[in-house]
Design a protein that fits this description.
Blueprint: H1 6-18, E1 32-35, E2 37-42, H2 59-71, H3 74-90, E3 93-100, H4 103-113, E4 116-123, H5 134-148, E5 154-160, H6 168-181, E6 185-189, H7 193-203, H8 207-213, E7 221-225, H9 231-239, E8 243-246, H10 248-253, H11 261-266, E9 270-273, H12 287-301, H13 309-316, H14 318-323, E10 341-344, H15 357-364, E11 370-375, E12 378-382, E13 385-386, H16 391-408
Parallel strand pairs: 2-3, 3-4, 4-5, 6-7, 7-8, 8-9
Antiparallel strand pairs: 1-10, 10-11, 11-12, 12-13
Helix pairs in contact: 3-4, 3-16, 5-6, 12-13, 12-15, 13-15
Amino acid sequence: MEQFDPTLLDTLIDTLQASAQLIEIIDASGKIIIPGLINTHTHIGMSLFRTLGDDMPQRLQKYIFPLEKHFVTPELVYQASRHSLTEMISGGTTTIADMYYFQHMTARAVAESGIRGVLAQALSSAPAPDAKTFAEGTARLKALTAEYSGHPGIIPAAGPHAPYSLTAAELRETVRLAQKLDIPIQSHLAEMPFEEELIVRQTGLRPIPYYDSLGILSRRATMAHCIFANAEDRALLRERETGIAHNPSANSKSGKGIAPAYEFYRDGARIGLGTDGPMSGNRMDIVSQLNITAKMQKVRLGDPTVMKPAEILAMATIGGAEALHLEQHIGSLEKGKQADMVIISTESLSMFPIYDPYAAIVYCADSNDIESVLAAGKFVMKKRELKTLDREEIRASCTRITARIAEGFTPAE
């Protein structure tokens, strides 16, 4: 056997350093490594309105619409997006699906953060903060797509708000445009108690079949909520390979209901987890959704054996990737995929002892247990220190905006 020549190692190190391919060895002894968490539905540009009007009746009309009319600007969306991203990265999120106004500003913030975003320009018939008409909204969508075409971390998307927010002609035009631009579609579907009655009265179809009749349901689409989905609706979503974003915290807080997430998962649908917006679910980290997802399905079905921890974690990772139709690139730790990784500390009191790592993550962990986060192989947080965003500078910028909101906002009568 030949003797090892130590000069060979020196030569290898010199070669790597010369080509700037430095190797860093991460000691994760005693910790848990999982794929990056995926938030399949949110509105991060709203975070500076968080806690306004919580639990109030007619909140949409009295709080959200007036707030958006008077305060939503490109600067607010940018700063609110940065603020949300600090919280999301601190909680282990490496990919988000977002829908809101002035989405080019959210795209700017996501690009700066180093994580990945499927970012939908919101579209509706009614005037919005960034578009007085549907046509103006689609013009913004085209501009967003042109600006970020080919970007490694930004995927532009079309965001028709809901079946009741646009005409059938506008929804068909959205599908046509998404096909032409080759971009995804995100929308809210089967979420509101009034939605089914309205759509049936207008079209003779339930909301989910109605969307299908317009060509929206497809491998291009991700539908948020789907609370009111019967067996036929669920089968249709599965057959069309449409993604589903399950938002248990937001849905329960609003009292709308509990989506049949277990049946979606059991039957092989493309289902992932979402936080919804910060005015709906308040917390923006996916870790906080794990526990509630499991327990609400057990209560809904009266069965403690459903939605086991390994299944919940799958929904938060590869399930989210499937819901966004990105499973070839993210969602699991395997060769050929993006190196999105989360290192979970086991030092907190609630994380000891650990006999079942899946149960520990789902039932015991919180976002403070997330120690480090890598997106595409690069640290965006290392040992709780953010690497791409300045937490204090962002907080100061946001505080100046929230002071104006606190001083100038009055709920509508």
